[in-house]
Amino acid sequence: MKTKIDALAGRKPLFAFDLDSTVTRCELLPLLAREVGLENEMAARTQACMERGGDFAADFAARVELLRSIPLGRAREIVAAAPLHEDIAAFLRRNAPRCRILTGNLDAWIEELIASLGMAGRCLCSRAETDGDRLLGVADALDKGRAAMELPRPLVAIGDGSNDIPLLRAADLAIAFAGSRAPSQEVLRAADVAIDDERALCELLEQLI
């Protein structure tokens, strides 16, 4: 890892963060599912998806279907109140032009949270199909690997789930963040280093600013 860090010195890398369980302290779909009494089911399905990989788009669409009855305004309130890794949130706010958030979550749910992080216009995410305050479904699921290939270089990526593996593999420096849960072995193999403390993570990133 030291060789990769040294290679980035003075090159002003872009920092690409996953959102759920990386910037936030929890997965957002189970948080939303609490509103309709499905928190435990959603947590189990989300954890399985983050561990096993597979067809993220199809799995995500199926999980979103369970949450369609939540009005979008209420969903945005819930997401905006999600607990954050505050050191990471502060890093984003200080360095917003050098950062991006890449998340499979829906634009219609996360826009207020993203704005509160100073990241409006700097977030790549899945797009929702909506009708007024109603969610109809997923219009387009984000492919993190494809999105990462279109970002400026050099790239430092931070993630924790199986859907982050394409992002980590595309990066010049890949960091598995274990601040909320232990990453799977597949995620660890895709990363150059694993860090379980957000302060230590931000100290490393500050070295690269």
Concise summary:
The protein is built from 11 helices and 7 strands.
Explain this structure.
Helix 9 (about 165-170) links the parallel strand 5 and strand 6 (about 175). The longest helix has 14 residues, at about 40-50. It is built from eleven helices and seven strands. It is of the alpha/beta class and about 210 residues long.
Write the layout of secondary structure elements.
Elements: H1 2-8, E1 14-17, H2 28-33, H3 39-52, H4 56-65, H5 72-80, H6 86-94, E2 99-106, H7 107-116, E3 123-131, E4 134-140, H8 144-149, E5 155-159, H9 165-170, E6 173-177, H10 185-190, E7 193-195, H11 198-208
Helix pairs in contact: 5-7, 6-11
Helicity range: 40-55%
* Distinct helical segment count: 11
Strand proportion: 15-25%
Topology order in helix (H) and strand (E) letters: HEHHHHHEHEEHEHEHEH
- Helix/strand-derived category reads alpha/beta
> What Rg, in angstroms, do the CA atoms define?
16 Å
| Mean pLDDT over the residues | 93
Largest sheet: 7 strands, mixed
The low-confidence parts are: none
What's the shape?
Answer: globular
Query: How are the strands of the biggest sheet laid out side by side?
Result: 4-3-2-1-5-6-7
Please report the total strand number as a whole number.
Answer: 7
Query: Termini, distance in Å?
Result: 17 Å
From the structure above, extract its key features.
alpha/beta, 209 residues, single chain, 7 strands
